Amino acid sequence: MDLLGDEIIYGDIGVSPATFPLIGGVKPKSPAEKCGLVKGDILKAVNEKEIIYWEEIVYIIQDNPLKTLKLSWLRNGKLMNAEITPEKKKIKIGDKEKEVGSIGVSASLPESMVIHRNVGFAEAFTTGAQRIYLYTVLTYKVLKKMILGKVSKDNLMGPVRLAGMATDFANEGFFPWLLFLGIVSHQLAIINLLPFPALDGGHAVFFIYEFIFRRKVSFKVLDIANRIGFSFLIALFIFVMGNDLLNIFKG
């Protein structure tokens, strides 16, 4: 189960970096795929208006759901044109839902802008620890927002959509795929440590209780707690699976 979804890390400081309009991925059965866009295409213009940054096309697409637009892009140095109609999608902003346009593409950085730097074991260990801390804080923030209803249920991904994402990352290469597996494993570990019956975090609560009060929790209490916990987890699993399938059928 993935909780981060579309959560933007840069949102904590209120800014995000400008992005080159290079397509890094195309969602199956999306308007972009039907239009003929593929990974590696460089977006150049919308309705003959030149595009320099990825954010520009995002704003135009979001402001024009179900409206036909003329799109221009470069592929291997050749200029291509086609019409595209963004589908309508609901996104949650704070406590409100907003309908925006979406064509089903994601951005990528050109190789010339990517810097590879080799580091020693000590620095790699420190960087890894910082990443774990960052993802832990972010996961708990998303959990809190989800409980308060400030995050859309579409951010909750189950095994079906995770399998699709794993395939996408595998197509990017071994290390992006490995990073994706690490993030998912980390989130599962965080969820497993929540103080909830049937999870390891719930067992830890009972162990702490027994250590402090020097007496065992009755079997009946443990049995009821675990039954409630397992029932909730099964219901959550069914909900997440249904949410995955619904998103797939919606395109």
Structural commentary:
- This protein is of the alpha+beta class.
- The chain folds into two domains: 20-108, Roll (Pdz3 Domain); 121-249, no CATH class.
- It is built from seven helices and eight strands.
- The strands form three sheets. Strands 3-2-4-5 form a four-stranded antiparallel β-sheet. It has a two-stranded antiparallel sheet with strand order 1-8.
- α4 (159-172) runs antiparallel to α5 (174-192).
- It starts with 21 loop residues before the first strand and ends with a helix.
Which terms would index this structure?
251 residues; alpha+beta; Pdz3 Domain; 4-stranded antiparallel sheet; two-stranded antiparallel ribbon; 7 helices; elongated
What's the gist of this structure?
By secondary structure, the chain is α+β, with helices and mostly antiparallel strands. The protein has two domains: 20-108, Pdz3 Domain, CATH 2.30.42; 121-249, no CATH class. Helix content is 47%, strand content 18%.
Q: Shape from CA axes?
A: elongated
Strand order of the largest sheet: 3-2-4-5
Q: How is the quaternary structure best described?
A: single chain
Tell me roughly what share of residues is in helical segments: 40-55%
Number of helices, where a helix is a run of at least 4 consecutive DSSP H or I residues: 7
Instruction: Tell how many strands the DSSP assignment holds.
Output: 8
Order of helices and strands: EHEEHEEEEEHHHHH
Strand content: 15-25%
Major sheet size, sense and barrel closure: 4 strands, antiparallel
Domains (count): 2
